[in-house]
Amino acid sequence: MKYTCSVAMGPIEQLTELARTAEEVGFDAIALPDSLFYMESAAADYPYTADGSRMWDENTPWVDPLIAAAAMGAVTTGLRFYTNVLKLGSRNPLLLARQVGSVANLTGNRFGFGVGIGWAPEEFEWCGVPYARRGARVDEMIEVIKKVLAGGMVEHHGEFFDFDRLQMSPAPSAPVPFYVGGHTGPALKRAARVGDGWTSAMMTCAQLAETIGRLKELRAEYGRTEVPFEYQAVCIDKFDVDGHRELAAAGVTDNIVVPWLLYGHGFDAPLADKQDAMKRFAETFIHSGWQD
Question: Would the pTM of this model clear 0.70, i.e. be above it?
Fold first, then answer.
């Protein structure tokens, strides 16, 4: 099982140093969250908390994850980065293809594209995109972005997007993996059908095991069982070595963690406290030999 460090909701001036430390202590990747803006009044409940409340406010720091990946990639050599997850629905696929291809090239193919639809109607409507039929629109967006990133002259004539032959150069020298987020039935089908992996929001180990089992069934239905596939998880109830063994047994291949929360520090903790927590976490879990 791999380990990814999430840097959600922390001061943006810490990011490059956190990337250096993550690589130094042995993390496999950095997970980068996405939020366009904070709306004072939300039309929909946040889907990943019990009461629908958001875990952040108008002063919580966010940075564009693609820009962050490029900046963090510039100060590391082997660490990977992925969005967890970027909300596709409110964006334009051709502009995103240009950005994703740039990040993949600048990081030497150390970037994975974690994608979701987006939960907030305001993010769609205030960016000039309809909220209705968002799932079908995102399906076509993924098709467009993959087509462009594959390189060469391409065209597309679909329901939502239409363009004649074009090419973006340079194309990434290796395919950019797509990790699909979401817990709903349609999201799981999307991940199984077109994804190189699935990424969770906050779930218990039991929920993760059930969901991974369902994804394996769906992948078999789509004839994709032989295609490599990641199960990236944010688990909320397994915090010791035995718990991590349970996650691995459940099928989790990439455990997304926030080390400083485990040791009593908040999202806005000083950089030194976060670095110490990362080192302690690595000693306990990454280098302890429990997977040998």
Answer: yes
